[in-house]
Amino acid sequence: MRYLLQRLGFYLFSAWAAITINFFIPRMMPGDPVQALITRYQGQLSTQAIDSLRTLFGLDQEASLWSQYLDYWGNLFSGDLGTSFTYFPTGVSDIISQSMPWTLTLMGITTVLSFLLGTGIGVYAGWRRGSWLDSMLPVTTFISAIPYFWLGLIAIALFAVQWPIFPASGAYDNGLLPGWDWEFISSAIYHGTLPGVTIVISAIAGWILGMRNMMVSVSAEDYVLVAHAKGLPERRVMFSYAARNAILPNISNFALSLGFIVGGTLLVEMVFSYPGIGYVLFQGVSAKDYPLMQGVFLFVTLAVLAANLVADLVYLLLDPRTRREA
């Protein structure tokens, strides 16, 4: 219990530090976002409107930095992440809530699928060294070296241009309204297949290599040899003794992957013009939309911290040594 409280305290402190840094960095950057918005509207805003915009964006020059910081915390607790410059007057919370389901669906499914497939293949490849499956490692090494976006461009060139099987961009057909009807769901699945397969192919190779190397190391441990000497079934030794201990490093990596699901695969979403949180972040950076960048960064940071906390809890369940040390 003491260990758990220490970890919770650490993550709470990390969350406070991330939120504080997230507040100060945009205010230290050069430029005036309100002035940029005024330039976009070509001087159509009055002086009173300009003052109102500064207050709206939390950039009131008459207010001290400390009062702005306290107001920022108050807005966070009320769920207000500010107003976007790019999508003015839409709030950042609304933009994130609209784009987040696309990223969670695409990245969530592909991350879990690549982890399960890669870990399973890695277990067998490491346990049965020298088999045909183990001899395929050079191929997985080559695939893991290919960047997501480059594989995405190749997929578009082959399966959207050369052979127009899948669409090259978008998340659903134009003219459809998002809903739970089969026409929209089937269109979303159709548009998400190509980027999803691209992510799985790119990510699965890393899980295979990591799990295979850990299985090779664990197979030589004394407790595995003792399990063999007891005459336990090979399948039980492989999963209950070798794989259970070999998977521990992958659990940490998987937790980080779950955290970065929220951030999306920025380059993949850019290549496929997929309306996820990564594509929204790209638009915010291009337009110097500080509130939007601030909201996305904060959301990603908190998601990574939450995923690491879950990984610590899973470690306590899987590894008895961690419980004894705690």
Automatic annotation (TrEMBL):
Keywords: Membrane, Transmembrane, Transmembrane helix, Transport. It is found in: Cell membrane; Membrane. Coiled coil: none annotated. CDD domains: TM_PBP2. Gene3D superfamilies: MetI-like (1.10.3720.10). PROSITE patterns: ABC_TM1. Residues 100-311 form the ABC transmembrane type-1 domain. One of its GO terms (biological process) is transmembrane transport. It holds the Pfam family BPD_transp_1. It is a multi-pass membrane protein. GO terms for cellular component: plasma membrane. PANTHER family: OLIGOPEPTIDE TRANSPORT SYSTEM PERMEASE PROTEIN. This is ABC transporter permease. It comes from Streptomyces radicis.
